[in-house]
Amino acid sequence: RSLLAAPRLSTPAPPPAAAAARRGLHALVARSRKDVPEGEAASSLVDVAAVSALPRQDPKADVEVEISHSTLNYKDAMIVLGQKGVVRDFPITPGIDYAGVVARSSSPLWREGDAVVLTGNKAGQYFDGGYAERATCRAEWLVAPPPALSLAQTMVVGTAGVTAAMCVDYLQRFGEVQPSHGPVLVTGAAGGLGQVAVALLHARGFEVVASTGRAEALGDHLRALGASDVVGRLQPEPKPLGKQLWAGVVDSVGGATLAAALAQTRYRGAVASPGVAGGGELATSVYPFILRGVRLLGVDQTMPYDLEGYPDDPQRWDGWRAERQRMWALLSESLGEDAIGAVHAGTIGLAQLPEYAPKIIGGEVAGRLLVDVKA
């Protein structure tokens, strides 16, 4: 099946715990590229007797999840390939997202059999993540999936979709951008985050302009998602302030693209910045901020509930968890089955992750890759 196809989604029932225990648990384990002999893959499938045998377990975990689905994000691809930068240490089971059913819980928040979803929280980066048939985590990191979405659909949406929802929410709440203010630009629109952002903004009444280096190949697809126009990559602005084009921007590219977007944003507009695919350097000036009142809104999808290196404030933790639940509600309300199917680039199994990770890094996949952990 083509990567651009949108097969009907289904959620196969996980095998009984007793059967899984008899044959062991399948998982993908990634090693640092520098520790792997030349010509050998950095990640490989392993069978373990129990989830506790995986290399990087969270000692505070109080829930075990039987995973049905995960997804392949840019961060995941880096870790699968053994690249440093987003992972605390190797070896590790990658997978920053997963969905499944609670197999065991010592927390009052969840009972055996509850459907749950995890996005973010450094799963797959600090601790073993979703590329295994089971994972353990802290109860507060999980949320219930919206009733309207299957577990497979939540992973088609995944971290990229939740981040897109945060961008749209931040533009409206903190940037005060409304549909009547003018068009909203989405850069990196061919990627998973960009495609979901296009669909969300369109559903909420915005005029959407999609920017991508694959405008000719994907123009019709992006228009079907809701873009009123599809343009190529933003070119660098020669002046600190360019022509005022955009009421708002969702920029998943960063670097020179973000600098150009800031220079082109209208008076009192806003730019949501969740990505760095085009580079981490930002060569700009203060003029968009002090002469046009442009607001630059950082978007970090981590939900840091009791997570080392983040604020140690339980009230803020609860607020971030409530925000996550609100984002899932926004996605469920705004995205129909057709939109979710349209951003679904295809389904792969654990064994295919090392093959597809370079394609994600190279921008060769348009949309969201679903990982069927049981395949």
Structure report:
The chain is an alpha/beta fold. It has helices spanning 17-23, 74-80, 151-173, 192-203, 215-225, 255-264, 287-290, 314-334, 337-343, 353-361, and strands at 25-30, 43-48, 63-71, 97-105, 115-119, 134-137, 184-187, 208-211, 229-231, 246-251, 265-273, 295-298, 344-349, 368-372. Strands 3, 4, 5, 6, 13 and 14 form a six-stranded mixed beta sheet that branches. Strands 9-8-7-10-11-12 form a six-stranded parallel beta sheet, sandwiched between helices. Helix 2 (74-80) crosses helix 10 and helix 3 (151-173) crosses helix 8. The protein is globular.
Overall structural class, as computed from helix and strand content, comes to alpha/beta
Number of separate strands: 14
Overall pLDDT level: 92
Our count of helices gives 10
Radius of gyration from the CA trace?
20 Å
Q: What is the N-to-C order of secondary-structure elements (H for helix, E for strand)?
A: HEEEHEEEHEHEHEEHEHEHHEHE
Q: Helices, strands, pairings?
A:
Blueprint: H1 17-23, E1 25-30, E2 43-48, E3 63-71, H2 74-80, E4 97-105, E5 115-119, E6 134-137, H3 151-173, E7 184-187, H4 192-203, E8 208-211, H5 215-225, E9 229-231, E10 246-251, H6 255-264, E11 265-273, H7 287-290, E12 295-298, H8 314-334, H9 337-343, E13 344-349, H10 353-361, E14 368-372
Parallel strand pairs: 7-8, 7-10, 8-9, 10-11, 11-12, 13-14
Antiparallel strand pairs: 1-2, 3-4, 3-6, 3-14, 4-5
